[in-house]
Design goal:
Layout (H helix, E strand, L loop, with lengths): L2 H5 L3 H28 L1 H4 L6 H31 L2 H19 L5 H4 L2 H31 L5 H27 L3 H8 L1 H5 L1 H12 L6 H9 L7 H7 L1 H10 L4 H16 L4 H29 L1 H22 L5 H28 L7 H25 L8 H20 L26
Helix pairs in contact: 2-4, 2-5, 2-7, 2-8, 2-11, 2-15, 4-5, 4-7, 4-19, 5-7, 5-11, 7-8, 7-19, 8-16, 8-18, 14-19, 14-20, 15-16, 15-19, 15-20, 16-17, 16-18, 17-18, 17-20
């Protein structure tokens, strides 16, 4: 890497921009998840029974169908024209689609057109989210010093926790409203507010320049015309590895969406279930950077695997505590499961996955691999609900599901190479590859 490029590294600014952008994007994304559990079955479907809940959770999952397609498209342009430009586009697309959700008429007004329009807006959210985390992680990783890549990239996912906190905090007063307000205009306000937070993040993100690694590759003429070709030729094993590792993201949807619905079934107040999400995510704001620092010291693999297995081990205790009548115990287990368990894998995966790929295909590799893996996370609520996970005794189904995905992610991580000591400009070349020719 050239000296000039090295001096252009701005890791703190990149981390802040990634944090803010991810917070906005995932405020919108998680807001939909809360509404899918508590509002949409009544507003957008003909009945408020279990079938309506399954269909509502299915609309949540539709975003994950769009995400692989968005990953291919946005990954291509992210590796062709740069990370920063694509990230500006994803931010605007997410904001517009979320605002439009707040404007949609319900089932009583237009029948089945209502859920159809909801799915369309959700697909737009999915296209946006497909490029956000991969782009923000690539941008931050390439700005970071070699020995602190995991710490700085952890702020991208810490931003998603910030977004989930904001979404839950804004939704708590909504669920406390009388039904005649909550199910008419009350639920719409949080979606409309996304326009404000998008504007704030837009002005923060647009001031950040392109990464030194990408600029150096561009100066060398080492930008692939079709990044998908060298990605599938040279990194197909890594793409498969990321897909399986990314199953672990289903823990987040189990915790943030399924647990809300299950908690209400076993007698918890809906606002209390949202507070569980808020408190656990607040703790994660502190623990995720610490796990990132730990991964810079001992490696990405052990921290990631610990996060996967510990979240699976703690999940049944957390779910059981919801029906124990001991609120303090439930909060403690929520924090342990999410903030001291899953948060480890969540903090480390941006560096762990990103370091598997070279600069010219990093955006595409991360985007495609994660979004295919995230399909499991997207449909986890529908799958688990269909198997009885949101009924009395459903904690067994939820716990078994979490355990299975944690084992798959951990075994996949074991097959990866440790990259904490590999210089940034040599990432993706550790198998003895020569730098790909520009003819690809």
């Amino acid at each position: 890497m050239t000296t000039t490029a090295t001096t252009r590294k701005t890791p703190v600014r990149a981390a802040v921009a990634s944090f803010m952008g991810s917070a906005v994007e995932y405020y919108d994304f998680f807001l939909f998840g809360s509404a899918a559990a508590l509002i949409f079955p009544t507003v957008f479907f003909p009945s408020g029974d279990q079938a309506a809940l399954v269909m509502s959770f299915a609309t949540f999952g539709f975003a994950y169908i769009a995400r692989p397609f968005g990953a291919v498209i946005l990954g291509h342009f992210g590796d062709r024209i740069g990370r920063q430009k694509v990230l500006m586009f994803t931010l605007v697309l997410m904001g517009v689609s979320t605002f439009l959700i707040g404007c949609l008429p319900g089932f009583e007004q237009i029948g089945w057109f209502a859920p159809a329009l909801l799915v369309l807006c959700r697909l737009m959210q999915g296209l946006s989210a497909a490029g956000e985390q991969a782009g923000a992680s690539s941008l931050t990783l390439e700005h970071a010093p070699d020995d602190r890549r995991s710490f700085f990239t952890s702020w991208t996912l810490t931003g998603t926790q910030g977004g989930q906190i904001l979404a839950a905090l804004i939704f708590i007063p909504v669920v406390a409203l009388p039904d005649e307000i909550k199910f008419t205009w009350g639920w719409r306000v949080p979606f409309w507010l996304s326009a404000v937070v998008v504007l704030v993040a837009f002005f923060i993100r647009r001031s950040l320049h392109e990464t030194p690694a990408f600029e150096d590759a561009k100066a060398r003429g080492d930008i692939a015309r079709m990044p998908l070709i060298p990605l599938l030729r040279d990194h197909w094993r890594d793409v498969l590895r990321v897909i399986c590792c990314a199953f672990i993201a289903a823990v987040s949807t189990v915790f943030g969406n399924l647990a809300i619905a299950y908690g209400v079934v076993v007698g918890l107040d809906a606002s209390l279930t949202l507070w569980l999400v808020v408190v656990a995510n607040i703790f994660a704001l502190g623990t995720q950077p610490l796990f990132g620092r730990l991964a810079d010291r001992i490696g990405r693999k052990p921290v990631f695997i610990y996060g996967a297995l510990s979240s699976a081990a703690l999940m049944p205790f957390y779910m059981l505590s919801m029906s124990s009548g001991n609120t303090v115990l439930t909060f403690v287990l929520a924090v342990l499961t999410f903030s001291f368990g899953y948060a480890a894998a969540n903090a480390v995966w941006p560096s762990f996955y990103g370091e598997m790929f070279s600069t010219r295909v990093r955006f595409s590799g991360m985007a495609i691999g994660t979004q295919l893996g995230f399909l499991m996370a997207g449909f986890a609520p529908s799958i688990v609900t269909a198997f009885g996970g949101v009924q009395e005794g459903g904690w067994v189904v939820i716990s078994v599901f979490t355990g299975i995905i944690a084992v798959i992610a951990s075994v996949s991580a074991l097959t990866a190479r440790e990259t904490k000591n590999v210089p940034t400009d040599e990432l993706g070349l550790s198998r003895g590859q020569h730098r790909e020719s520009v003819s690809a």
